[in-house]
């Protein structure tokens, strides 16, 4: 890709895309830049990298998947995956919508909180393909009344493009049912986190969380100011939502002389930062709703606090654009 910087570090690890490919990956190419897409693993991005001139080396902009994760069909091991029809957790997998109590399939313990919707756990279909662009399609049919699962039918697309500006994803979804459907969406990217990694973003406030990583109160946490001035990712241990995001974040790897700008369009007005100390990666996610937004609304916060999410009337659609632009420090 012509806009990609040549890193000052020569420590790019060996990488063989052929070893990652299980025969079902789709490769997008623009110049030296390559994106590997895994339609069968939740419509995920498996890797995005620049092929270095030295054979067998690559400069990764997102944390690459492993062959083990591909074979296990594990979206949590991908570079990024789509979030639909809601982002992050719903407390106890239950919420009330238009007078009806909705119960979602969930596990036990911390997993009793329904997580990230379901589109990331199911295969997507390749609808169209070019050398540097791909459209993926997904449809969910509501189970028969009384059955388990998301009780609203919808269709969705991801249009993924690799060009001279970087990697972009256009998300689109439409309500196929005969009743109004609550809906939230976004993407869940993982980034490399070598020492000194810095993250900058303008946000208004951070949601404090309880022991089960669910939001309880909005506050002016020190991370808010740190993000504006440039937060050293290893200095914070966070798994939190931020409101008032200006839809842009800058990731910098100073020791490698490179940076990556994340930009999103409305309604991806919320920002999630997950960075656990000791892990070699972190997540900075553009999303359309605060964690557990449906229950926060029930708690009387709607109208007083902006928690995001939307409601799609029958036949109504929603879309948003997000993208990553590489650069040089």
Q: Tell me the radius of gyration.
A: 19 Å
Would you give the CATH topology?
Answer: Beta-galactosidase, Chain A, domain 5
Helix content: under 10%
* CATH architectural grouping: Distorted Sandwich
Helix/strand/pairing class, anyone? mainly beta
The CA-CA distance between the termini, in Å, is 17 Å
Uncertain spans, ≥5 residues at pLDDT below 50? 1-11
Number of domains: 1
Spatial order of the strands forming the largest sheet: 10-11-12-13-26-22-21-16-19
Count of extended strands: 26
Q: Element order, helices and strands?
A: HEEEEHEEEEEEEEEEEEEEHEEEEEEHEE
GO biological process, one term: carbohydrate metabolic process
Pfam family, one: Aldose_epim
Protein name: Aldose 1-epimerase
GO molecular function, one term: isomerase activity
Keyword list:
nine-stranded antiparallel β-sheet; single chain; 44% strand; seven-stranded antiparallel β-sheet; mainly beta; 329 residues; Beta-galactosidase, Chain A, domain 5
Describe the structure.
It comes from Paraburkholderia eburnea. This is Aldose 1-epimerase. One of its GO terms (molecular function) is isomerase activity. One of its GO terms (biological process) is carbohydrate metabolic process. This protein has 329 residues and is mostly beta strands. It has one domain: Beta-galactosidase, Chain A, domain 5 (Distorted Sandwich), CATH 2.70.98.10. It is 8% helix and 44% strand. The strands form six sheets. The protein has a nine-stranded antiparallel beta sheet with strand order 10-11-12-13-26-22-21-16-19. The chain has a seven-stranded antiparallel beta sheet with strand order 5-15-24-23-20-17-18, with no helix packed on it. Strands 1-2-3-4 form a four-stranded antiparallel beta sheet, with no helix packed on it. It is globular, with a radius of gyration of 19 Å.
